Amino acid sequence: MRIARYSIAGQDPAFGVVELAEDGGGHPDTVSDLTGDPLAGPVQYTGARHRLGDVRLLAPVIPRSKIVGVGRNYAAHAAELGNEVPATPLCFLKPNTAVIGPDEVIVPPAASRFISYEGELAVVIGRICKDVPVERAEEVIFGYTVANDVTLRDLQEPDKQWSRAKGFDTSCPLGPWIATHLTLDEASDLMITTVVGGEQRQHGSSALMIRSIAELIAYVTSFTTLLPGDVILTGTPAGVGRLEPGQEVSVTIDGIGTLTNTLVPTPVADPTSTSGDNAQ
């Protein structure tokens, strides 16, 4: 099943089940409306169905409390940036205000001039969990989605910690939906491909992770409680690089879908602006 979060005709966000023509049945791509939030409790079909092209897909989840990123979880990626593979998983946090959805724009802060893409498999947590054993990790997974861990590379090293470099508004595109039908074994061997401006930049399997999905869940829950809707970013394959203003970046994960966003120049700051909603 593919769970999407969407809006239609300016209405409030809703959840629905996506059915693609490639699934068979002779129907066009559609989304069937659901009552409530699948991460919060039981849901039902309302009977309403929309053509997928007629709705605006939003980030499929806004994490309840946090996004936990894992750095340098692919050996080739660590090497391409001149880093050693860490002895234990290298974790960092992104706030939920970093989340944007498909086709939304990435807006870097004025302090940075080197913005980099990082296509990743994201794990969406489905239940409150702490100290999860590796062998029970699958029990706490709601599903999987596509992520882009956008990074301000010129701030990452000078800051020595990654709050600005990886936690700025719009730094965590997620989408296009959550795939709940994949088993842990299936998710552990999916091809991740990133295309920038029509050119393939990344192409590597999640099987190349240094620490597996189950190991990451066990490690993360050894020091923090995860809540339904929290997200773990599992690391990026080799091939990361620079994004230029105006470039479109698409991350595709086989069996899940494609997430596309565009980098825009940093706008001139408006001192009268006090809030915004990046997380639709």
Automatic annotation (TrEMBL):
InterPro entries: Fumarylacetoacetase-like_C (IPR011234), Fumarylacetoacetase_C_sf (IPR036663), Rv2993c-like_N (IPR018833). One of its GO terms (molecular function) is acetylpyruvate hydrolase activity. Residues 1-60 form the Rv2993c-like N-terminal domain. One of its GO terms (biological process) is carboxylic acid metabolic process. It comes from the Bacteria. Keywords: Metal-binding. It holds the Pfam family FAA_hydrolase. Residues 66-264 form the Fumarylacetoacetase-like C-terminal domain. PANTHER family: ACYLPYRUVASE, ACYLPYRUVASE FAHD1, MITOCHONDRIAL. This is DUF2437 domain-containing protein. The lineage of its organism: Bacteria, Bacillati, Actinomycetota, Actinomycetes, Propionibacteriales.
